[in-house]
């Protein structure tokens, strides 16, 4: 990492050791949410969701990050992707409202459970999603640091890492209150 980014990054986020400690805190909290483990896409940005209006079907593409993960992570990551990916185009005002998320989660659970979910079920998953949204920001922040060092793609991964980790820290206290 060039010294300028390294200094700026360290001033904002601390050392790798501090990030590891933060990760362990996050992990220990997320385990408590009891979100089920499912086969997850893990990269459901809108470009990876293909809607065929004529057939009334939805398909997913680009499974390179797919694996088992918390159900709430996959949903949270999908919602986080609504704000955009291009550094100049990230707009947190595009993050879906609670009403939108609750409606979406209700539809998701209806398919997942093959039954109409209770309001309690929907609210439980909504709460889990809010917590796992932090994991999404943290993951893509760290992923961007790795890409910054390794990728030949013309993208400012260093800046993107700062954006995602800043969002993680902005939301952490709101979501976890005094737990972390």
TrEMBL record:
Pfam families the UniProt entry points to: Choline_kinase
Coiled coil: none
Superkingdom of source: Eukaryota
Enzyme Commission designation: 2.7.1.82
Pathway: Phospholipid metabolism; phosphatidylethanolamine biosynthesis; phosphatidylethanolamine from ethanolamine: step 1/3
Gene Ontology BP, a term: phosphatidylethanolamine biosynthetic process
GO molecular function: ethanolamine kinase activity
GO CC annotations, alphabetized: cytoplasm
Protein name: ethanolamine kinase
Naturally occurring in which organism (per UniProt): Manduca sexta (Tobacco hawkmoth)
């Amino acid at each position: 990492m060039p010294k300028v980014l390294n200094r700026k990054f360290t001033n904002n986020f601390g050392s790798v050791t501090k990030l590891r400690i933060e990760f362990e805190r996050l992990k220990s909290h997320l385990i408590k949410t009891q979100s089920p483990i499912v086969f997850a896409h893990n990269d459901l940005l809108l470009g990876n969701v293909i809607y065929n209006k004529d057939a009334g079907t939805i398909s997913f593409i680009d499974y390179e990050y797919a694996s088992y993960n918390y159900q709430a992570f996959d949903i949270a990551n999908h919602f986080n992707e609504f704000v955009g990916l291009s550094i100049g185009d990230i707009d947190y005002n595009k993050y879906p409202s609670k009403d939108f998320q609750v409606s979406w989660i209700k539809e998701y659970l209806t398919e997942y459970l093959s039954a109409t979910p209770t309001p309690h079920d929907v609210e439980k998953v909504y709460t889990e999603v809010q917590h796992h949204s932090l994991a999404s920001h943290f993951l893509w922040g760290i992923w961007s640091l790795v890409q910054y060092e390794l990728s030949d793609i013309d993208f400012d991964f260093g800046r993107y890492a700062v954006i995602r980790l800043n969002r993680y820290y902005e939301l952490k206290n709101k979501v976890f209150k005094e737990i972390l």
